[in-house]
Design goal:
- The structure holds two protein chains of two kinds.
- Chain A is an all-alpha fold.
- Chain A folds into two domains: 53 residues, no CATH class; 235 residues, Orthogonal Bundle (MetI-like fold).
- Helix content of chain A is 79%, strand content 0%.
- In chain A, α3 crosses α15 and α4 packs antiparallel against α12.
- The longest helix of chain A is centred in the last third of the chain and has 37 residues.
- By secondary structure, chain B is α+β, with helices and mostly antiparallel strands.
- Chain B has nine helices and 20 strands.
- In chain B, the strands form four sheets. In chain B, strands 6-7-8-3-9-10 form a six-stranded mixed beta sheet, sandwiched between helices. In chain B, strands 13-12-11-14-20 form a five-stranded antiparallel beta sheet. A five-stranded antiparallel beta sheet of chain B has the order 15-19-16-17-18, with no helix packed on it.
- The longest helix of chain B has 18 residues.
- Bound molecules: adenosine-5'-triphosphate (ATP) and magnesium ion (MG).
- The site of magnesium ion (MG) has 3 residues of chain B, from α1.
Chain lengths: 294, 346
């Protein structure tokens, strides 16, 4: 009997050579459609972003990026990502761990709940926070009495971002952990490791690539989120504007170079994310495949 | 270390996987848990390890009740069915893991851990593979690494779940002999699960036959094979043939004839006669024997297996004949079982 671990490992390498049944012209047409689609919907906008940003030369570009409000928007975006990404790493790992490794009542419900931010329009999520924390909101009076400001301030933006981005890490880890099962953890426990050592030396290394993917996607979304943040931010220039919100404001003020300059940073972030992801896959492809298979 | 399983019951969501199982394992013994799929072998092994908690009953390590000790505190070496090697660690790190996670003074220095790992690798005959990753090993090599890893913590008890399950017949036989040698050299109390009776009978000091969450019989290979104590064990271990018979006045009757077997201590009534196909005495005439016509015949290695149709009800039984026996299709053969056993009719 073939060893299951070896088999699944090999499958990953063979998966590139499935039987090709389409004829050559059909293949060419399909490829042409895909490339045209990608070109029109992805590449062209990207080119336009950079073209517009640099339309008045490099100095105009750097100047608009050194504008005080723009810099404050960049700082805020970095701050929000720096808070919400770690929060969601902790949350995502805990949720995935609970769902994949334990049996409990309400597990299916929890799984659905994790997907909620994906199925709800971000604007609605933002509105929920307004209803909750706003002056007329459920907790509004209490918050005001205690001098706590959430809405139209950084805490509100962080909350909205955390909400919108919390599925990314969990979603990436749950299927991975489920597939890997409890075997390695049980082995570690039987060798005398305590819970924390088991997590640190066994569970985490087994899911590190999935976790990294999740973090990359989570970060990209945290920096790029518009809808939910737009509702709770209040658009106070230099204070509560994140980069995406700032792009909109600049654009509405007919400051095309400024708007596209900031947009180019966001686009750059997307590109860096993609490149990192691809590099990871190229460099550690075999290892990633091995940790996924079992 | 002696292990005593006392009246253990295990339920999964009300489904009883083990009913009231008791078992005494002597120190240094090599024990096999043998049974069909789903009979509760893995469950019993995991209960001993502490990977599961009994619903009822206790498990003793020596004189100490270990039922509520965690797996970390039981100090058992567990070899998993699919090895569960840590795939991101080298072979040496896998083996050293159990020492590395120790706390305080019981944790040896890194150098000592490395030395222990290569010592164990020597023991499992894999020296030189320290730097490999599990994905770069063959199935049999992984199996050995898993065993070395379990032995690194100097366990009181070694537990193996189908240790050779995923390997081909050749490697299985090799590893089997090798496991016996290691066991004799180290003297660990060892329990292994298998559904391969040849493996169990050949390797173990005693075999525990399980079926449907119960222990059917515990004994040496000879006990189990020669004196099975239930129809299940008769059917499960080795080949067996059975016939519905009647007991009357201490004699066994097949339909309307006595078959020349005395059963003075059996109650009268319907019963089932069990015997081994190869353990029969061929007879010429028939007064007091079982006779039937050959319905089918096939060659099995050094002997011939024939299926006989017996009596008006055309009951079929299998017996073994010498290869040169003249019996052909439709010819009549008479025999009497050598060693046999009666069980109440089912
Ligand atoms: N975690 C579990 N949850 C529910 N039922 C279980 C669980 N583990 C085992 N069982 C059930 O308990 C019974 C015994 O299972 P066990 O794994 O001990 O069988 P086994 O003898 O090891 O079989 P195999 O030879 O197929 O490995 C089976 O019916 C199985 O479905
Ligand atoms: Mg099993």
């Amino acid at each position: 009997m073939a060893d299951p671990e070896i088999k699944s490992y090999e499958q990953h390498h063979e998966s590139r050579s499935p039987a090709v049944t389409e004829s050559r012209p059909a293949q060419a047409v399909l490829m042409a459609i895909v490339f045209a689609f990608l070109g029109i919907f992805l590449l062209l906008p990207l080119i336009i972003v950079f073209h517009e940003a640099l339309a008045k030369g490099v100095s105009a570009y750097t100047q608009s990026l050194s504008d005080a409000d723009t810099r404050s928007a960049i700082r805020l975006t970095l701050l929000v990502a720096a808070i919400s990404v770690p929060l969601n790493i902790v949350f995502g790992i805990s949720a995935a761990w609970a769902i994949a490794k334990f049996e409990f009542k309400g597990k299916a419900f929890l799984t659905t709940l994790i997907d909620l931010p994906f199925s709800v329009s971000p604007v609605i999520s933002g509105l929920v926070y307004v209803l909750l924390f706003g002056a007329q909101g459920l907790l509004g009076g209490w918050l005001k009495a205690h001098g706590i400001v959430i809405l139209f301030a950084v805490p509100g933006i962080v909350l909205a971002t955390v909400f919108v981005t919390f599925p990314f890490v969990a979603r990436e880890l749950i299927p991975l952990m489920q597939e890997q099962g409890n075997g390695d953890e049980e082995a570690a426990l039987s060798l005398g490791a305590n819970g924390w050592q088991t997590f640190w030396y066994v569970t985490l290394p087994n899911v590190k690539w999935g976790l990294l993917y999740g973090v990359l996607l989570c970060n990209a979304r945290a920096m790029g989120e518009f809808g939910a943040v737009s509702v709770v931010s209040g658009h106070i220039r230099g204070l509560t504007n994140t980069m995406p919100l700032h792009v909109e404001i600049l654009y509405n003020e007919y400051n095309a170079v400024g708007a596209f300059a900031v947009a180019s940073l966001l686009a750059g972030l997307a590109l860096v994310t993609l490149v990192l992801k691809t590099l990871l896959e190229m460099r550690y492809g075999a290892e990633i495949a091995a940790t996924r298979g079992h | 270390m002696e292990v005593r399983v006392a009246n253990v019951r295990k339920e999964f969501d009300r489904f009883p996987a083990l009913h009231d199982v008791s078992l005494d394992i002597k120190s240094g013994e090599l024990i096999a848990l043998l049974g069909p799929s789903g009979s509760g072998k893995t469950t019993l092994l995991r209960l001993i390890a502490g990977l599961e908690r009994p619903t009822r009953g206790n498990i003793f390590f020596g004189d100490e009740d270990a039922s509520h000790k965690s797996i970390q505190d039981r100090n058992v070496g567990f070899v998993f069915q699919h090895y569960a090697l840590f795939r991101h660690m080298t072979v040496a790190d896998n083996i050293g893991f159990g020492l590395k996670v120790r706390h305080g003074p019981s944790r040896p220095p890194a150098q000592e851990i490395r030395r222990r790992a290569s010592e164990l690798l020597d023991l499992v005959q894999l020296s030189g593979l320290e730097k490999r990753y599990p994905a770069q090993l063959s199935g049999g090599q992984r199996q050995r690494v898993a065993l070395a890893r379990a032995m690194a913590i100097e366990p009181k008890v070694l537990l193996l779940d189908e240790p050779f399950g995923a390997l081909d017949a050749q490697v299985r036989r090799e590893l089997r002999r090798w496991l016996r040698e290691i066991h004799d050299a180290t003297g660990h109390t060892t329990v292994f699960v298998t559904h391969d009776q040849e493996e169990a009978l050949e390797l173990a000091d005693r075999v525990v036959v399980m079926s449907q969450g119960r222990i059917e019989q515990v004994g040496t290979a000879d006990d189990i094979y020669d004196t099975p104590n239930s129809p299940f064990v008769y059917g499960f271990i080795g080949e067996s043939s059975s016939l519905p018979v009647k007991v009357e006045n201490g004699e066994i009757w097949l339909a309307d004839r006595p078959i020349g077997l005395a059963a003075p201590n059996e109650p009268s009534g319907d019963a089932t006669l069990y015997f081994r196909p190869h353990d029969v005495e061929l007879l010429d005439g028939c007064s007091g024997c079982i006779a039937g016509t050959v319905a089918a015949s096939r060659r099995v290695a050094g002997t011939r297996r024939v299926e006989l149709e017996i009596g008006g009800e055309r009951q079929r039984v299998e017996i073994e004949l010498p290869v040169d026996h003249p019996a052909a299709h439709k010819s009549r053969v008479a025999f009497r079982p050598g060693r046999w056993k009666l069980f109440p009719a089912s």
